[in-house]
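User: structure tokens for this one?
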Amino acid sequence: MQKAKIFIWGASLIAFVLSCLGQDTNVGVSTKGNASIDSQTEALIDELPQISKVEYVDYALFGGLQFPPTLVFSNGRALLSESPTATNSGIIERIVSRGILAAPSLLQHLDDARAAAIPPMSGQRATFILDKYDYNRRLRNDPPTGVNLEETLRLYPSTNYTIKVGDLCFAALGAILNRYFSAAQHELLGGGLNVSSPTISKRLCEVVRIDFAGLTEKQHRESLAQDLLAADSEFRRLGAYRRIAFYYPDMLEPLVLRQLAVPTYDVFKVEFLVRNGLYPNKSPEKRRAMFDEFLRGNGPAFSDGVLLQLFDDLSLEEAYEHHLGGREYDARSLLVQLYGYPEFVSSTNKPYVTHWDCADLARFVNALGQDKSLKVDAAVHAIFKKITDNDYLALACIGRLIGKGYDEEILDYCQRRIPNSMHYATELRAIRSKLDSKTPTDTQSN
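Assistant:
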């Protein structure tokens, strides 16, 4: 039954994506085809050896927290440079700005071993070859083999690594595709240098080329749409949104409306039920009754919230069982009883779910910016009207709606919540002050 639901949901997603694109053919990235080489991209790639400093490749960057490419290099840790004040050369920015036109050249130059002028990177402890390859794990049932080698680390012969042109092409391609392709980065802990370079690893280079050879604009659109609607992480979703807004704004509105319509759950309510209600109560009958009553009062989306909470707690339970810290929870038995998992279920079986946490929704609304879509405004307003005490989500909605004809409702919310808000009273007071300073004519005109 669970697999059938996933299949139906996946088919629905594909049909919706195709309807947004006005297409009726199969979804997927072609592995065949000869795309034309873009001369402007080639010229820019020939300039890559001149790069001496680059502030580049933070997970938050390529996860979507900074995009379009005019922002990609403005902040973030300098992970392809020893200098914390590294500057942007502008070359990669211009390549990324070309979007799908640049992909054929970037793929062709993945194994380009010309050295960039960036000073060699060194690991304080060691340099490891990991061959990390990022993909949407929610959508791919056939993970590529021979890459993502965390469990079989290979030590690079030297503790220094020189960035190659192919590495920069790898990173630029990832920026276009909404994939975290980082050729080299320092470990935040441990002092090691992790290298995943298509100029060293023939297999990594091969996997990238197989997956994206002949990539068309239509396929790029489809891939980004799927990343938004069926993300395997919040960063994937936000990254897809920003890339669609930059490359294909014509398809953005229906996708955003679809995502905003997804029901949410509250992680704090879920955690309280699980840890203060279900765990202490050892009676299976009472646990079931408590769970069912919780869903009746909050909605079916909360079932996904409880499921994820139990899997998160199961990882702590497993650590406790192996004397590695953790906590003595009872998550496994609840997964068996409430969700039908086998008795040997482990935290590695954690699924992706259809619904999302209301905090994820708040951050998505924050990312929407100030585009001109009245339908998106209306959808955010519909969310705002239902909020009773979630100030984090309310502030995100207010950021979208303020000055657009909803100011009286916003002011009412601020007045009601300021005396009771535990964490956001200051922000709500600032909004109230801003609205109080506007005349009725100003408010109506906006």
